[in-house]
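User: Predict structure, ligand shikimate-3-phosphate.
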Amino acid sequence: MNYPIYLIGYMAAGKTTVGCLLAKRLGWHFVDLDEAFAEIHGLTPAEYIREEGIETFRRKEKYVVEDLAELPIEKVIYATGGGYPCWEDNMECLKELGTSIYLRWKPEHLAERLMLTDLNERPVLQGRTKEELLQFITPQLEARTPYYEQADYIIDAPVKTIAAEDDQHIAEILYKLILNS
Ligand code: S3P
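Assistant: Predicted complex:
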């Protein structure tokens, strides 16, 4: 498996939580690309999208990923922003830079997980009920799927009821995958 590793997937797929757990277990570095974006630009992705719009955000987000890839550290797990792989040639870039792993969930489970988070941090989802979320997620996930499924590995999330337990389970699957490849 080539380093670094990029976790990709829809919002609330667990990229950050799983990435953090996995990096700790492996003794690797962990970088949340939304957080890196906020450090570099002084605004969170949500704030930036509100102020500058999605197109400008996507262009800047692309530079953040590519600039960080220049750093001379290899053993890094990156959690990408949910829409990053679906913009221009970003998926091809990820595949050239390292190994991409898609954390795949069904829309109904993503909606449940999203309801446990602060939707104000996600401008496009703000103020929606669970049913409205599902109506929004289903077509967007369908449109994003052809990009996500280009990942080097696809992990189907095991569905239980407690989000934190699910994330630990996924981290465990990825740990074994990395050690054995
Ligand atoms: C986005 C997902 C967010 C963040 C931005 C846009 C998206 O990241 O990059 O708000 O379009 O799916 P997370 O997937 O980490 O929530």
